[in-house]
Design goal:
alpha/beta, Rossmann fold, two-stranded parallel ribbon, 16 helices, 55% helix, 12% strand
Length: 496
């Protein structure tokens, strides 16, 4: 281990410990427990003996109750009894989403019914007879607004990154809209809801008329996901609830978003010095010419989406109950086979496999990094229903990541080639969406997951590949990619 690796080891360990201390501090003093409400997994958070109003917190598409902790925990600390739940097909909820996603009467109304069932269960369990507050992000904003229209016992609504055609001039009458600075279209929608009351209203202003009270707040420097960790947004939501319930709290939301980022960065950085302890395999890879590299990137990028879309048109081809998972598994496999064929012809071979190095990447990526993410940021633990989906995805993900390790030089290639090789796959996904937008629209939404995987796991795999060769990186990262994809997107069933 070099001197610089020792320095990184010490600093990363110190940062990880400090981050854990801060993140656990945000949870200290709270009773947080998991329960079931009308068959829906719920995380209940409250201080001991809390008797404050009940708040129901709902996540957005491909989200989970863990993603809403930035809003839920400060509210619980302020004395509210907070119930955060997982929609059908999301997080820990094994029941798939169902219905037609293209019509309000389909999937949306089923999720509205689920929300109302959670509200009813919370009222009964907490013996609460007052108005229930609803907080939701993105997809959930439309659902909670429609739920409020169906239940007169719903009180104030906090809608984060909101859009809903159910909003009118007179409904909802108590509504706070929080948008990230980087969400221009959603900021416009928030302003439109104010202009229904006052055409001169501006962001940051509270407008009132008779029984109506609305405001649109902008969280600076964040976008659609970052808004969930914005202290500005979290404080505005808490202040709005306090005003609605005539309460006064002195709680200041902690900077958990920054500390979560610091913890995850520290866990990634630790891989560099630790990888020096892995078995050393010397693998001599042939250097690709510019032409060979271009072919290895362009051919699969163009042909894989065409072939995978054609496979998807075969009757009975959709077997995996996760949105676009069938296409993605096939796409990854075809892309890998095309790229591996070209790399093999160019003389690239993966060399011997180091089981220890592959196991390290899987254990560190899933058990260490993954569990930290699951506790503080987003669901990462699969339900039993997702295990076979992960296994099916692995048939495409493992060869795909093996090809990726080879084409990027097993950690020794230039940054330019690594970026170009991975950009090629993103282009390939874009071509697939363009070829079949009706069926593969949701594939575009998985692009951020792939980009984050390249940024985080790709870096860990690079260090492992430099030490133990491309075979270990391909196997370890392939299994991690299958896992990440298998837990990210909702379970879905068109029937029922």
């Amino acid at each position: 281990m070099t001197m610089w690796q020792r320095v990184v080891l010490v600093l990363a360990l110190a940062l990880a410990v400090l981050s854990l201390w801060q993140l656990e501090g945000a949870r200290s003093g709270l009773e947080i427990r998991s329960l079931k409400a009308a068959q829906t997994p719920v995380m209940r958070a409250a201080v001991a003996g809390a008797d404050g109003p009940v708040v129901i917190v709902a996540h957005g598409f491909a989200g989970s109750s863990q993603m809403m902790q930035g809003y839920a925990l400060p509210m619980a600390r302020a004395g509210y009894r907070v119930w955060s739940f997982d929609f059908h097909g999301h997080g820990r909820n094994p029941q798939p989403m169902s219905g037609d996603v293209n019509v309000i009467e389909g999937t949306t109304m089923r999720l509205v019914d689920q929300t109302l069932a959670v509200v009813a269960a919370a009222r009964e369990a907490e013996s609460w007879t007052g108005p229930v507050a609803l907080v939701g992000h993105s997809m959930a904003t439309d659902i909670i607004i429609r739920a409020a229209a169906a239940d007169s016992g719903i009180g104030t609504i906090v809608a984060i990154s909101a859009f809903s055609q159910a909003v009118t001039r007179d409904f909802p009458d108590d509504l706070l809209l929080i948008s990230g600075q980087g969400e221009p279209r959603l900021r416009e929608f928030a302003l439109d809801t104010l202009w229904m009351i006052d055409p001169e209203a501006i962001e940051g202003q509270t407008v009132t008329a008779e029984t109506i009270r609305r405001a649109a707040i902008v969280a600076p420097g964040v976008e659609h996901v970052g808004v969930l960790f914005s202290q500005t947004g979290q404080q505005a939501a808490l202040d709005w609830l306090d005003f609605s319930y005539d309460r006064a709290s002195t709680v200041i939301p902690p900077a958990t978003g920054g500390w979560l980022a610091a913890l995850l960065a520290a866990l990634v950085a630790l891989v560099w010095p630790i990888s020096n302890l892995l078995p050393h395999n010397t693998v001599h890879l042939a250097v690709l010419s510019r032409g060979q590299f271009a072919l290895a990137v362009l051919v699969p990028a163009i042909l894989a989406p065409v072939f995978s879309v054609l496979v998807g048109m075969v009757p009975g081809g959709n077997l995996l109950p996760v949105l676009v998972a069938d296409h993605l598994a096939v796409h990854l496999l075809i892309y890998a086979l095309l790229q591996m064929t070209l790399l093999w012809r160019a003389g690239l071979r993966p060399g011997p496999l180091s089981p220890a190095a592959a196991a390290f990447l899987v254990i560190w990526g899933l058990a260490v990094f993954g569990l930290a993410l699951d506790r503080y940021g987003a669901n990462f633990l699969p339900t039993s229903e997702r295990l076979w989906i992960i296994a099916a995805l692995a048939f495409g993900a493992v060869p795909f990541m093996l090809a990726d390790a080879l084409v990027t030089g097993a950690g020794h290639g230039s940054w330019g080639r690594r970026i170009l090789a991975r950009f090629g796959f993103m282009v390939s996904l874009g071509i697939a969406v363009a070829l079949d937008p009706a069926e593969l629209f949701f594939l575009a939404l998985i692009a951020p997951v792939i980009l984050l995987f390249y940024l985080i796991y790709g870096l860990m795999g690079r260090w492992a590949a430099q030490r133990s060769g491309p075979a270990a990186a391909g196997l370890g990262l392939g299994l991690a990619l299958a896992w990440a994809l298998g837990v990210s997107f909702p379970l879905f069933s068109a029937a029922g």
